[in-house]
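User: Here's a structure from my thesis project, written as structure tokens. My advisor, Dr. K., wants to see whether a designed sequence matches the one we expressed. Can you design one independently, without my sequence as a hint?
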């Protein structure tokens, strides 16, 4: 790889946060990637993903099978996009310049960043509700004030902003302590509620509420898209993490060992606890924060909620800050640093009304997850076709950081990539407007990935 000298880079495309990582600084091994995925998977949204399937009518076997299959599917584009990060040491917004152009890359980068902002807001809302649940247990009279849920939300949001301001080392520290806390909360919930429900037997015997294969498939197929959409975000920006890999083998094995097993294990906890809540309370409680509020022991509930707060903070800054910070920095590297990009993420997350996205499991899975999958699937299709089919995994790294180079296209924008992106998004989301084509929306990630990838291949082949 050619050295990236000052004369070979454009200041409008470069800052230290976007620069290639030198080989000597690429120190992440198999354990680092496996633990990264455990830390990001063991979180409240994973739990709610599983509990939402139970609330929707699935049995525990159907829910676990859906989640495992979805994660095995999304692991494929994850590993494919990870290759460039490990080989060249470049982050996602720089990698995507190869297909969209050095200026056109801002389009997919901002789309990815906006989704991350939404996730940031969701996690901040969950953390705020955990604080409010503690107040209701410890100070019932004070927590009765309707202003308190919002105060708790903004308090947790400010805590996230503080962590971002302190930088990447604080994020790395939280990553190491957050997952064990969250795993402990999940096991505590599992032990408490299954004991109340008479053991795991009655819980796992709860049948599916679907009475025919057709009825099940109508729920399963969009749910599978939601499972893929859950990590479709990181499937794009995984080079932000694999740029630190010692080798391709280390990142590939680490991710394969970390993602599917961790997601499936923690999803099982969510499935079992939600099934038990249906046995106990007559209806499934899909929100673990609400369920923790039903603990009769204030001390135990408070400790569990504190652990939940730490784990939520960890997941939020690790999964939802690193990528958009780099993406916003890519808009204007001279003015926007990683830290500034993180602060922008926090403020945009507020403007996306995260409390609306968590109204119920339908809003969460069929609105939020499937909706944004229709935008991210096309980007993944274009990136993978460009890197492996068009370029045969060969990139000219210095040209990614300068104007009028190999990736200039037309004034820094590749119109073929934008056309392909628009085609995939339009086809994937047209099912919202045309009920007979609803299946296109239910498969939004797969449809967008296939359409955009095919259109891009044909356009680039002709050119």
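Assistant: Designed independently from the structure alone:
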């Amino acid at each position: 790889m050619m050295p990236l000298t000052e004369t070979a880079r454009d200041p409008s495309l470069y800052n230290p946060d976007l620069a290639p990582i030198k080989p000597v600084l690429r120190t992440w091994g198999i354990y680092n990637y496996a633990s990264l995925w455990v830390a990001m998977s063991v979180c409240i949204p994973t739990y709610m993903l599983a509990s939402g399937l139970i609330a929707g009518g699935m049995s525990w076997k159907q829910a676990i099978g859906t989640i495992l299959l979805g994660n095995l599917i999304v692991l494929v584009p994850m590993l494919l996009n990870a290759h460039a990060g490990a080989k060249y040491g470049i982050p996602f917004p720089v990698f995507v310049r190869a297909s969209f152009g050095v200026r056109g890359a801002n389009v997919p980068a901002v789309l990815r960043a906006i989704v991350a902002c939404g996730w940031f807001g969701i996690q901040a809302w969950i953390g705020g509700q955990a604080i409010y649940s503690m107040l209701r247990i410890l100070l019932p009279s004070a927590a009765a004030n309707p202003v308190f849920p919002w105060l708790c939300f903004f308090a947790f949001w400010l805590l996230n902003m503080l962590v971002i301001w302190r930088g990447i080392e604080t994020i790395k520290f939280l990553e190491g302590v957050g997952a064990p806390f969250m795993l402990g909360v999940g096991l505590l919930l599992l032990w408490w509620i299954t004991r109340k429900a008479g053991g795991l037997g009655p819980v796992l015997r709860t049948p599916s509420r679907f009475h025919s294969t057709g009825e099940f498939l109508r729920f399963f197929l969009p749910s599978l898209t939601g499972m893929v959409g859950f990590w479709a975000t990181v499937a794009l920006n995984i080079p932000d993490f694999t740029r630190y890999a010692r080798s391709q083998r280390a990142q590939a094995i680490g991710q394969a060992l970390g993602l599917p097993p961790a997601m499936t294990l923690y999803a099982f906890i969510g499935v079992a606890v939600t099934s038990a809540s249906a046995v106990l309370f007559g209806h499934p409680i899909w929100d673990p924060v609400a369920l923790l509020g039903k603990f009769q022991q204030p001390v135990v509930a408070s400790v569990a909620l504190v652990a939940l707060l730490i784990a939520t903070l960890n997941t939020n800054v690790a999964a939802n800050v690193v990528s958009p910070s780099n993406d916003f920095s890519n808009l204007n590297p001279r003015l926007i640093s990683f830290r500034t990009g993180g602060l922008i993420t926090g403020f945009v997350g507020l403007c996306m009304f995260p409390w609306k996205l968590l109204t119920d499991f339908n809003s969460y899975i069929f609105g939020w997850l499937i909706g944004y999958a229709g935008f991210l699937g096309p980007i993944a299709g274009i990136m993978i076709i460009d890197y492996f089919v068009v370029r045969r995994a060969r990139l000219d790294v210095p040209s990614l950081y300068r104007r009028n180079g190999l990736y200039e296209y037309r004034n820094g924008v590749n119109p073929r990539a934008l056309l392909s992106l628009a085609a995939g998004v339009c086809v994937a989301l047209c099912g919202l407007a045309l009920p007979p084509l609803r299946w296109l929306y239910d498969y939004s990630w797969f449809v967008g990935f296939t359409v955009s990838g095919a259109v891009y291949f044909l356009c680039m082949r002709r050119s």
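When you compare it with your expressed construct, this may help: The chain has a mean pLDDT of 84.
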